Amino acid sequence: MTAYIIRRLLILPLILLGVTFIIFGMMQLLGSDKLLAAYVNPNVFDKLTDEELEALKDKYGLNDPLIVRYGKWLNGVLHGDLGWSVVGKTYVSEALMQRIPYTAELALYAIFPVIGVGIWLGIVAAVNHDKFIDHAIRIFAVIGWSFPDFVFGLFILMIFYSFLGWLPPGNFSNWVEDAIKSSNFHYITHILSLDALLNGRFDIFWDVIRHLIGPIITISWLWWAYLLRITRSSMLEVLNKEYIRTARAKGLDEKVVINKHAKRNALIPVTTVGGAMVINLFAGTVIVEVIFNRVGLGSFVAQAATQLDYAAIMGGALFYSTILVVGNLIIDILYAAIDPRIRLG
Amino acid sequence: MYVSREPILQVKNLKTYFYTEDGVIKAVDGVSFELYKGETLGIVGESGSGKSVTSLTIMRLLDEKAKIESGEILFKGKDLLKISEEEMRKIRGNDIAMIFQEPMVALNPVYTIGDQIMEAIILHQKVKESEARKIAIDLLRKVGIPEPEKRVDQYPHQLSGGMRQRAMIAMALSCRPQILIADEPTTALDVTIQAQILELMKELQREYGMALIMITHDMGVIAETADRVAVMYAGRVVEYGTVDEIFKNPKHPYTYALLSSIPRLDVEDQELKSIPGTVPDPLNFPSGCRFHPRCEFAREECKNLDPKLFEVSPSHYTACPFYGVLENVGVK
């Protein structure tokens, strides 16, 4: 198992190289004029003559062969330089570092309610197969499934912000911004809610949490529906297995049969879907960030893509592929932990 | 072998029906038999005859679609159909244990063999984990698993089919049950392994003094293991008696047909017969004697027969009132 993990970690840089090279190559299809825009003040850009454009392209190496340009980009990455982001109006690395903690914070708080509750609902439905509660959960799933998250998010915002004033949009209130910029607020983890606790500022902690509830409910809404359906069908399948009958024939309590014998087997396929969801959470959720006006990775990279901010796109791609590869490695390790047939081959 | 005349289990007029969207399946429809201490009762029949449902009814392990319509299952005088689920759980695995057909799928793939054996021991015998582990290792040794100290920590997929069935037997015997129900325990195994497992079961039965219900479709297994046999057809017992009498002198055309369909070494130029027709549709059983459409001796009255057993001798019963016709034919 350890050898397997080490092997996977060694492959990680190769995958990152491959992914970034493909994206870098695709970016070149934009043509050198578009790429040049990343280096030149847009106000001056239109007034430049063709000769001046060519000179600038030479200056920034845009006429070099693809492999040379990729090499330069890679060299920059290795030295911590991801380039300048037009959209972020700062260095890409800086822009990412500003946003990653917010995205990570939402992801951390969303994991339990989204994944945990989704799986729990699926198990409850399966255990009460064809009873009232099963039907109720399934109807809920169908509604959740067919209800777009952007509509649902707007509803949440309308009801809990506009109408009740409970759940405001944004990452935090204005007074928090002043508080955290003051010199006596120390950044320790860069996850704001945790830092607030560590600074003993429970008011800031509560404010941050209040801003997280709306996004979490919105993400939960759609993902529960999906996760609970997968969990339910997997659980139903397992409950019909012969080893469940064996467990019952031993005289085990039904709780033990479900919690010990059924759950662990039923969670094997759920791990894939749940893991993919967690990866998505950490990569940023565009729609939720836009609706709730949150600073985060998803909206930043989406904006970068629409404005062809190619340094930011490359930076985002690098981050996403790292999250994806590491996330999948964790899923594989979880698989092995759950299922000895994988662990022991 | 000494067989007590004191029944440890009495099944009386048991009816288990399945309510499906297509209709009611009368999987078990008025089954009665007794099991005596220390004996082996074989229940034999084709698939769909209701033999497995009978055993699951005794254990009360049926799914929600099944309903026990009527009958009694008396275990040491107590009706298992009347006690609470909690009381039933204390009996399952402890007094009555069961082993299943497919050792490949009857063990949980994500827990070790040892863990699965120890579970029942800890539950019923209230011993510590270290003590349970010792018992589990001893059991594995007893069922003939080599290197039990190592095997106890292995997972089902690391064992062969025969070893898994041995582990299943160890699990079933872990609490020294008084009754062991074996549902086709050797069907999924290689023939050479089959004989070993049957031998092992007989040996352990003698040692533990258990009563054994051997459920099978294989007359050969019955001949090898059982003292008495109940032949089931379409949810009913059609013939019931000692193995000797039934094999030498079958008194029901179905048993007669079953015996004629298995090859025998002691009969020269044997003509193997197959039973014409197919197992009847459980949603729509024939009237009267359910075997009459396939019976070579059927007559008009068979269509309206009552499903009851006639005494041939005090240790032999048949559901066929016209069993006299078999006198002259004998098993070929």
| Structural class by helix and strand composition of chain B | alpha/beta
Helix content of chain A: over 70%
How many runs of DSSP E, i.e. beta strands of chain B?
Answer: 12
Count of helical regions of chain B: 10
**How much of the sequence of chain B is in beta strands?**
15-25%
Strand content of chain A: under 5%
Biggest interface between chains: A-B, 23 and 31 residues
User: Which structural category fits the helices and strands of chain A?
Assistant: mainly alpha
The topology string of helices and strands of chain B comes to EEEHEEHEHHHHEHEHEEHHEE
Annotation keywords:
heterodimer, A: 345 residues, mainly alpha, 2 strands, 1% strand, B: 332 residues, alpha/beta, 8-stranded mixed sheet, 4-stranded antiparallel sheet, 10 helices, 12 strands, 30% helix, globular
Topology:
The complex is a heterodimer of chains A (345) and B (332).
Chain A: H1 2-28, H2 32-36, H3 42-45, H4 50-59, H5 66-78, E1 84-85, E2 90-91, H6 92-127, H7 132-146, H8 149-163, H9 174-181, H10 192-198, H11 202-239, H12 242-249, H13 254-283, H14 286-291, H15 297-306, H16 310-338, H17 340-343
Antiparallel strand pairs in A: 1-2
Chain B: E1 7-20, E2 23-36, E3 40-44, H1 51-59, E4 66-75, E5 78-79, H2 85-91, E6 96-99, H3 113-125, H4 129-142, H5 148-151, H6 161-173, E7 179-183, H7 191-208, E8 211-216, H8 219-225, E9 228-233, E10 236-242, H9 243-248, H10 253-260, E11 310-313, E12 316-318
Parallel strand pairs in B: 3-8, 3-9, 6-7, 7-8
Antiparallel strand pairs in B: 1-2, 1-4, 4-5, 9-10, 10-12, 11-12
Helix pairs in contact in B: 3-4, 3-6, 4-6, 6-7
